[in-house]
């Protein structure tokens, strides 16, 4: 038996009568925080170059996928299983990679991305540049995505430059001017092809190291 199938059986036993009362009592809503936590813990392990930690945290993320899928089987009107989830993503990957599975000739990676976006838009029936953006995501990647979409769909998005936004922040600090300054920096990073989230996370790691060194004396 594959380990993936074994995980299905373990999860089924935990959720079934005679299993674990805590696991049986969980809902999609009660588990959302764990999905986020496990994802962040994997990011931490990745940033630290901790291969063993990455392996463990990916397992915890996988558990959340299996857990939610097992709960979904019990829905009274619209049940689905981990098999349905796996089929959906496998079919999606095949559809969105015609250069791999259908012999479509592409010239470069940019064309691959353009094809992906075109197929995705057709599948989703999107009519707005905002369609498909996860509005609940943290503000930094949300702003970056909004800037990207506005640029892609040629939507005019008034943005202050970093210098003027910084001056406004210095003269009148407020939530609004802080937001404008942060958005201006994100826009500048996007313009130069720099991932602002990765940049800030790297700087945070450097800050953490300095704090640790200071505490160590």
Summarize the structure.
The protein is mainly alpha-helical and 217 residues long.
Please explain how this structure is put together:
It is a single chain. The chain is mainly α and 217 residues long. It has three domains: 3-75, Helix Hairpins; 81-125, no CATH class; 132-216, no CATH class. It contains eleven helices and no strands. It starts with a helix and ends with a helix. The model has no long low-confidence stretch (mean pLDDT 93).
Largest sheet: none
* Low-pLDDT residue spans: none
Ends apart, CA distance between termini:
52 Å
Q: What is the number of helices?
A: 11
Order of helices and strands: HHHHHHHHHHH
Number of domains: 3
**Structural class computed from helices and strand pairing:** mainly alpha
The residue-averaged pLDDT reads 93
* Total count of strands: 0
The residue fraction in helices comes out at over 70%
- 3D shape: globular
Name the beta content range.
Answer: under 5%
| Alpha carbon gyration radius | 22 Å
Pfam families: MazG (PF03819)
GO molecular function, one term: nucleoside triphosphate diphosphatase activity
Domain NTP pyrophosphohydrolase MazG-like: 26-101
InterPro entries: MazG-like_dom (IPR004518), NTP-PPase_MazG-like_N (IPR048015), NTP_PyrPHydrolase_MazG (IPR011551)
């Amino acid at each position: 038996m594959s380990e993936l199938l074994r995980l299905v059986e373990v999860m089924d036993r935990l959720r079934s009568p005679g299993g674990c009362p805590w696991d049986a009592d969980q809902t999609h809503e009660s588990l959302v925080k764990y999905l986020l936590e496990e994802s962040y813990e994997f990011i931490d392990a990745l940033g630290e170059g901790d291969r063993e930690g990455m392996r463990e945290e990916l397992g915890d993320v996988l558990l959340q996928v299996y857990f939610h899928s097992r709960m979904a089987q019990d829905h009274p009107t619209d049940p689905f299983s981990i098999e349905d989830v796996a089929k959906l993503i496998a079919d999606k990957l095949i559809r969105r990679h015609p250069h791999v599975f259908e012999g479509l000739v592409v010239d470069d990676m940019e064309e691959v991305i353009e094809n992906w976006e075109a197929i995705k838009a057709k599948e989703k029936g999107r009519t707005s540049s905002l369609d498909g953006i996860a509005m609940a995501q943290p503000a930094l990647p949300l702003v970056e995505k909004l800037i990207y979409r506005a640029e892609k769909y040629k939507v005019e998005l008034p943005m202050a430059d970093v210098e003027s936004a910084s001056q406004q922040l210095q003269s009148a600090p407020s939530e609004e001017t802080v937001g404008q300054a942060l958005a201006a920096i994100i826009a500048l990073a996007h313009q130069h092809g720099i991932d602002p989230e990765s940049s800030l996370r790297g700087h945070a790691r450097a800050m953490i190291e300095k704090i640790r060194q200071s505490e160590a004396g």
